[in-house]
Each structure stands twice: as structure tokens, then as C-alpha cells.
Specification:
Order of helices and strands: HEHHHEHEEHE
Number of domains: 1
Number of strands: 5
Shape: elongated
Number of helices: 6
Distance between the termini: 44 Å
Helix content: 25-40%
Structural class: alpha/beta
Length: 121
């Protein structure tokens, strides 16, 4: 009986998503420095308790290259993380939406590279 069930599913399920994900803090770079968005890790970085993000892998500016590499590896999905400090900043007690256009651009670039993407923050 188990053999019969397995043989019914010899073909992979369609569409099968095979992909990767990013952690913005670890991949984008450009946080916690002068004039940069401050994350919840800023104070720990300032005390030397964690490594400074620095440029990281520069995903924030090099995402088209990364999407092309994903495509070349045969991947068809990408989980795009969003760093809250880039998305929404507090200014004089009011939330201000920032950089949403950048994620729209990233998603359009991902889709033009043939990938399916979704976002998390």
C-alpha cells in the first residue's frame, strides 16, 4: 500500500519553489552609522557587543546581481526581508514611511529575473 502511494507521487509537485532568503541586517549593509537608519542592534554595536554591520554584502545596492546569480543557480523563489528601521522611522513622535519604493523596485527586478518573491519584516 505504501509503495502504491509513493508511485503516485513520482513527479515533483508543481509549482515547486526552490529558493533563498535574506536577513536585511546581515546582508544589506548601511545601518547604525552616522546618517544611517538605526536598528535595534545599534546600541549593542556601539558597546562592541556585536560586530558592526558595515557594508555587509551590499545587497541594498547590488540586489540585481544577486537575483541574477539566483536565476543562474536555477532558483525560482526569494524571500526578501525588510528592515523595520528602513521601512518606518520615528520622527518627533510620528511614524514616517521610508524607502517603500526601493522594495517595489527590488520586487520588480526579482520578477523580471524570473523569480517569485515575497517579503517579510
Amino acid at each position: 500500500m505504501l509503495t502504491e502511494q509513493i508511485s503516485k507521487h513520482d513527479e515533483p509537485f508543481e509549482p515547486f519553489l526552490w529558493g533563498v532568503a535574506t536577513s536585511p541586517y546581515q546582508s544589506e549593509g548601511g545601518y547604525n552609522g552616522p546618517g544611517e537608519p538605526q536598528t535595534n542592534w545599534a546600541s549593542s554595536e556601539g558597546r562592541g557587543q556585536v560586530m558592526k554591520t558595515g557594508l555587509a554584502s551590499e545587497f541594498w545596492t547590488r540586489f540585481p546581481e544577486d537575483f541574477a546569480r539566483c536565476r543562474a543557480m536555477g532558483l525560482n523563489a526569494f524571500r526578501l526581508g525588510m528592515e523595520w528601521s528602513r521601512l518606518c522611522a520615528m520622527r518627533r513622535g510620528h511614524r514616517r514611511i521610508l524607502m517603500t519604493g526601493r522594495w517595489i523596485t527590488m520586487r520588480e527586478c526579482l520578477q523580471s529575473a524570473g523569480g517569485r518573491g515575497w517579503s517579510r519584516w
